[in-house]
Amino acid sequence: MNGTVKKDNKWLVWDIVIVGAILAFIVLSFFTFTRSNRRRIVQQNNSLIQDATEQKAARLDELLDSSQRGAEMMASLYGQVTAGREVDADLLRDMEDRTPFDYVEFISADGTDLNSEGRTADLSDRDYFLEGMKGNSGRSVIYNSRITNETLVTFYAPFYREGRIEGVLSCILRGQTILDILSSDYYGVQGNAYLLARDGRVILSTVENAPENLLASLRENGRVPEKDLEKLEMTLDDTNDVDFTGFNFSGSNGAGSACARALADGEWVLMQTLPSSVSGAMSRQAAAAGIVLEVKLVIAFLAYVAYLLVKNTFREKRLVSEKQAVSRIVDATTELFTRFALVDYETDTYEYLQDKNTDAPERGVYSELVRSLAGRYVRDGDGEPMGTVITGEYVREHLTQDVPYLQYEYQIDNTGGRRWENMSILCLRRKDGVPASVLYAIQDVTALKEREQQIRQALQNASEAAEAANRAKSEFLARMSHDIRTPMNAIMGMTAVAAMHLDDKERLTDCLGKITISSRHLLALINDVLDMSKIESGKVTLSEEPFNMADMVRSVVTIIQPQANGKRQELKVHISGVEHENVLGDMLRLQQVFVNILGNAVKFTPEGGRILFSIRECPSLVHGMGCYEFVCEDNGVGMDETFLRTIFEPFSRSKSSVSQNIEGTGLGMSITRNIVQMMEGGIEVASKPGEGSRFTVQIHLRLQDSAAEDVEELADLRVLVADDDRDACDTTCEILSGIGMRPEGVLSGEEAVERVETCCAAGESYAAVILDWKMPGKDGVQTAREIRRHVGEHMPILILSAYDWSEIEAEARAAGVQAFIEKPLFRSRLIYALNSVLAKDGGKSVVPDQLEDESFGGKRVLLVEDNQLNREIAEELLGFLGV
User: Fold this and answer.
1) pLDDT of residue 634
2) Which of 613, 760, 770, 846 could form a disulfide with 819 if both were Cys (CB 3.0 to 4.6 A apart)?
């Protein structure tokens, strides 16, 4: 009994010793862990602050470099583009809007600085102004700006015009812009950052009340070791190759970390600090974690004994659970792979463990299986043929002890077609270091390969599209540089010629005309580029204002008609079924659409060609909205199918020899489509080379509430219409029938005279006669003269013309013509004209929107214009009016 007690006491002593040793080990481990963790935290923080400083320095390098290049590029670009224009506040505001700079200022050659708000200051003594006037560019720091009371960084560059420096462009970033990059947060604590000059002077800092010289401040407070201060001085010394240094400093919460990095240009140094509070907090957290870990270890040790007691109880349950888990893994693996084959090279046998997709026997001779399958494998790329890869000789040679497995992708022909498979070969047993048996795991990856091919094709298509866009932009820049230089050279050349022939009025007039033409062409190029830029940036908005469809069409025809006349082209405009002329929309943008389309028709139609512009109102399914269809047809050069697919893309131009000789930016059709789409309309184009083109635009416009037309006195009146254009004649008769009149149409002046004679002989008469001006045989004036001989003065005669009738107005009125109607003919204009000559109270004017001549003699006008050149032009124009 005593022996048993002694034995138990002996084991109890040993248990106490073991427990004490384990507890002592735990405590020692805790202190070792705490010390090691503190060192690890310091090293980690040093690495963190170094990485952060490198990243911030890289971002600053990129910002400073891109800002400097931007200032130089903007000075060069605006110096060329704004030649002849004074640099004013509007131009500076435009620069600020188009660049990331906070302020843009211009210092003229006399040292006067102008900002975008129109304020001026004398900066003739500033170093960067003096350097800029020497042709140098760079950056400078403005401490405590007199205007904004903050530190500013200015990037300056000389502003050249015609090879001469006219001033210095100063592009300014606020100190806060750079501080936003320097600001860093470490584990919820704000770090300090300093941007230093080489002498240690603080340029910018995230620290409030930062010292003027950081190096001197660090040396005074003694918180940084002397050796680290020497390393910092080496970094600040621009004669040294050292551009990076990291060091620690003492703080109120322990050791902090800092790092200094010279920027790429060598002028400034970036220094960042990780506060000691971060290191202290991390050390305390680590210590607390160590204590928690120690407590957990003690609890775990005490629970270990209890664990041993129940271990055997749960062992069987765990084994059962593990077996079930392994079974599920095996099931999932067999679902992933289509076939498993076990191959024994020593016996040259195989056995399929799972076979989902093969017609081979379940087991057999492996070499015979290889021969039967070799012809069905399709070689993939430049690798070994799969008939070779699956042989035992190849596998034993390549599946060495250093290679865990072999893997191949290939295609195979089977009854279901050609499919992709992935084969993995794993060694199960080796003999003398050579595989003796292996496992083939085969997976069907057809869907995955097809998806990869789709993605690859999509990437290739995207790459080709991007390359095409880049090529188009490059070609656009090449064309624009030529297209802009051409009118600019013409303007400058003709200006020089005009200056040499001031006494030759005829030569001077010719030069001014050519200067005007070139200026309009240059303005059109610039407007296209600006319109496209606004559309792509989403800055274009459409207005919804009341306008008259007839006014819009007349404006378009007025612009296009002189161009068509210059090429002796026939421009016809047909109006069909337009019941609602007063609508709401953006008239100027709509006009821009049709000027672009008709302008292209004129440019790409040879001399003597035909252009037809048709407008009709279609039935609308939306109440209060009108549906209008505009069609432009020509018999010009046409376009091939390849170009039709890209016609509405920016910078797109036809590759044909005819198109290459015609000036243009390739932006007109892209702008046109964008405007139509913004109006929720549609545009279509059909064309064939050599046969011409047809553009169809359909848009919906909100209808205005218009007053009822006054057609009472016109009802049931008989009207004769004479027009050699059958479509125009039919359209006029259709409008007259729609307002209740009885029209009769003829196609020549001779027929009109005969109809009037016949009518008079029968004792009848027409209420009015409408004659087209230009008809073959007898024109409108001659026809009017003969009709007057038969009917006298009582019957109104109206001339219908698409041309300026001022040259024949006197002759026509002498022949008995009472009114003129302008083509294209709209319902409202025809009703107004007929009322003016048929209504009992008469009419004041045939054209409702034509202003009477008015005299401004003796009247005074105050003109306010800050641009001297514009002011001079306005004074001249007002002078012509007698002001």
Assistant:
1) 93
2) 846
